[in-house]
Amino acid sequence: MNCCAQRTKTCSSSAAPLQCSHVCVARRLVLERDSVERESREKETRILNLTRELEDLRDRVEEADRLRQQQARELEDIMSSKDDVGKNVSC
Question: Quick one: CA torsion of 56, 62, 63, 69, rounded to 10 degrees?
């Protein structure tokens, strides 16, 4: 229920309108606090998910780099182990 509408309804029959105003403000502050806490939890969850994704991507990059280096060594070994028959010779 809307806080101000509730306040108007309650305060019209109440002898203490100032108390009604305080109750309305307190409810609004509780709602704002809850909203900020929810937003904070959502952002923290997003940060954790992005951090995990970043770690996974770094692991994949490291693995790809390791494989690239291994294949480069294998290619170098193959190229250096060829004899004269396997090499291109231009006359």
Answer: 170
